[in-house]
Amino acid sequence: MSMAFSYDSSFQDALSALKREGRYRVFADIMRERGNYPKADTYSGAGGGSKSERPITVWCSNDYLNMGQQPKVLAAMHEALDTVGAGSGGTRNISGTSHYHVELERELADLHGKEAALLFTSGFVSNDATLSTLAKILPGLIIFSDEYNHASMIEGIRHGGTVKYVFRHNDMAHLEQLLASANPAAPKLIAFESVYSMEGNFSPTNAICDLAEKYGAMTYIDEVHGVGLYGPRGAGVAARDGTMARIDIIEGTLAKAFGVMGGYIAASAKLVDCIRSFAPGFIFTTSIAPTLAAGALASIRHLKQSDVERERLAERAAALKALLISADLPMMESPSHIVPLIVGDAALCKKVADALLNDYGIYVQPINYPTVPRGTERLRFTPSPVHDDAMMQTLVAALNSVWDANRIARAA
Known about the structure:
By secondary structure, this protein is α/β, with parallel strands linked by helices.
């Protein structure tokens, strides 16, 4: 008599291991207040029970510029909903290409100075689908990937099944060593991010482009934490650095600085047409809702014309960093809008985040392995243009109390 496999016990073992390591994720059940970001309400109880008495301040959203609350964006989404209804009705090939999608792709191509752009349902899908498809279109492709690249890029490279070399983070000497040792005749692609969201640092786009040109490689930049926030018209870090025209493929998101949802690439017309024609992650999925496309279109058009949000964000990020430094809190050095605070232990990181939420009404998510290396667990703060001085002072006072209560090391 054969023994039946214990599926449930395997699931339980996997979950128990996560909990022992302090890496088990608990979702915060929140409702943002329209027009009053970063204020929100939090819900407690199984399945979303009664509203808690304590409102919260959100400190970890990727809606970096508060465009998810911008009146033009909301109006465009309402108009699209009233014009065409809720969903797109199909894949892009089968009735799911509305004029909103067409306009948005044109706007994105213009933003990045490329011939064409292509929409995806998320930034994860755009990376996964594009990188894996490139490996199949270009036989023998060798991909050179920064060690800190996002999981979606890693997955896309893995799915492509091609040869890859991982270079040390932002280490141009190591990248050149790998490029020089590769087959000169093989097609090559350097994949990197513009802003590394867990460190808050920038990639050296000029140096990467120089190496790509020297060794005949294509370049692929993930600008998800850069678009809308840097460069002329918010075109990203590459635009700020003057390298946008030198980069072959620009990947971005509509869900962070633009405040809506979706992902995209911008590149040459032939390359975009190949991804459109061969990528299963694009072909076989329903297109984003017209309401989302309309909202993203309004957001991009606004940020092409307005620097106010970008300038205010830069000032607010600098103000928060100064307060954390003056309090001797262990902030990682970050030249960008992202403000990481090191805790260094997974269970303690979660304990600190829970205390901030439950005792002080401050919502920041613990960032643990595998998102960051073990021993570098952190809180990742993302101030926005509407996080005011009083909110920052309240935050720092709460951090001081929690740091002392848990005997966490201060900055050296």
